[in-house]
Amino acid sequence: MNYISITKDQREQMLKRVGLNSLDELYADIPECVKLKDAPNIEGGMSEIDLSARLAQLSNTNIAAHEYLSFAGAGCYDHYIPAFIDHLLRRPEFFTAYTPYQPEVSQGTLQAIYEYQTGICELTGMDVANASMYDGATALVEAAFMALRLTRGKRKVMLVSEALHPEKLETMMTYADSGLIEPVFVPLDDDLVTDKKVYAELLEEYAGQVAAVLLPYPNFFGIIEDVDPLIMDAKEAGAYVVLDTNPIMLGLLKSPGSLGADIVVGEGQPLGNAMSFGGPGLGYFACAQKCVRQLPGRLVGCTTDVEGNKGYVLTMSTREQHIRREKATSNICSNHALCALAAGMYLAATGSKGLRDIATDCVTKAHYLREQLVDTGLFYSPVDDSAGRDRTQAFGYEFPLMYAGEKDIFQWHDELFEQGYLAGVILSSGEVLDVEELELDPENPAEAEKIEALRTQEDSLILFAVTEKRTRAEIDAFVKAVESLG
Q1: Phi then psi for 480, rounded to 5 degrees?
Q2: So what's the pLDDT on residue 92?
Q3: How far is 130 from 113, CA to CA, in rounded Å?
């Protein structure tokens, strides 16, 4: 459909309605540096053949993930996706289905969502799960707002572990600008886990004010934190417990429900969804029965009709599309239906034993890679003690290491990329001290010795991940490539 611009009179009428005099006032919040000052230089039209060729040329500049061996993770993982998932997703009844408001014509979609919800409940050990959310980050923030509603707004403080994914922490801060919630961050200790001492102190400092504690399981660095004492302390303080989880690792770990979690969230991309240049994924969200009335998003229930036949319907629809916005549990009024469908099919296909086998395979290979990288002498644990002993706690299929090689970390990473490897995710880059700023004379023997002592590079921190797709031969080849670069 062609775009038809509004008329000058219509524009003036619009501005008058919102109390403005010009479009410049309407766009006042947009930074000047991103505003288009001159008319765009747009070429003339193209034939369909030329346009198709041009689009193909542009798409070929992208690099497909399957062309590289990925040892990167940090929230987006290269897990194997069974072939049937994509085949079923593209069926028109799923691929083009509209929001299932009319249950009489949407039973297939509603049942698929219900099956997904059931799978998430079994995975997390919780009572209820919604139909999914936008992603893991928004699911985490929605859990914080859910805790706010559960405490009737009398408690606003959210104790948030800094061991959570940093992008989730940024999302939390964005939502905190509303003033409705007050995130208080719990720092990491020297072992890269939630500082239990500070955590206890903050619970005491904000006694009677903490609505929820938000904890990772495992954390951003892949470390499996001992969350039992943290959960116990939160319960004693009258706070709700939110666990942010990796769904694959739940195939091995105790279920969040058995640990006493009230709300469980996470990024569902590892469950049958491709990396797709970073998205889309889905946020899974589950809770205890006592919290269900404040559950955000869409929820499908199972019932029977007047003839006793089983049927599926949207239920407890306290969303902004159904009631007054100020009474809605969330302004997220949709779900990532196709991504959730893929996750549901993945869980159904693997089953509990299959998921446990996949998780075991990932963890075993990750521990093998870590051992091999440390043996090269180019890496060491970021939590070594003064005697050089490794204090790393139990971890899943993701782990951090310090790179101590001679190369610049970005050069090292790029060179491995040219060889076909995604060599982890760089979390921090080492910095070389600028000795020239110290005004030391290299010709002076005493000062030259001091310069040499100061000319040290702070080692870089890299986060590696290994999924079930990586073979032992591929891991060995990667380690050999790392050794050859130094």
Answers
A1: -65, -40
A2: 85
A3: 9
Residues of the chain with pLDDT under 50: 1, 432-435, 454-457
- For 69-101, the pLDDT digits (tens) are 999 999 999 999 999 999 999 888 888 877 787
Q: Read off the tokens for 145.
A: 């707002």
State residue 339 phi and psi, 5-degree precision: -65, -40
Per-residue b or e along 381-410, where b marks 16 or more CB atoms closer than 10 Å to that residue's CB: bbbeeeeeeeebbebbbbbbbbbebeeebe
DSSP run (H or E) holding 476: helix 472-485
CA distance 413 to 163: 25
pLDDT at position 457 is 47
Q: How far apart are CA 146 and CA 291, in angstroms?
A: 8
293 Ramachandran zone, left/alpha/beta (phi>0; psi -120 to 50): alpha
Six token digits for residue 312:
């599926």
User: Taking a C-beta distance cutoff of 8 angstroms, is the pair 123, 114 a contact?
Assistant: no
Give the Å distances, CA to CA, from 261 to 69, 244, 372. 36, 10, 36
The span from the CA of 257 to the CA of 217, in Å, is 12
DSSP-assigned states of every residue in 242-273: EEEE-TTGGGTSPPHHHHT-SEEEEE-TTTT-
Q: What is the Cα–Cα distance from 423 to 259, expressed in whole angstroms?
A: 35
Residue 475: CB partners within 8 Å, gap ≥ 6? 365, 368, 369, 372, 466
Residue owning tokens 């899974």: 284
Calpha distance 425→413 (Å, rounded): 9
Q: Would you give the distance in Å from CA 20 to the centre of its chain?
A: 40
Q: Quick: pLDDT tens for 173-210.
A: 999 998 999 999 999 999 999 999 999 999 999 999 99
CA gap 53, 50 in Å, rounded: 5
- 298 close to 330: Cβ distance less than 8 angstroms: no
* Torsion 185-155-132-134 (CA) sign: negative
What SS3 class is residue 469? coil
Q: Tokens 């979390």 belong to which residue?
A: 427
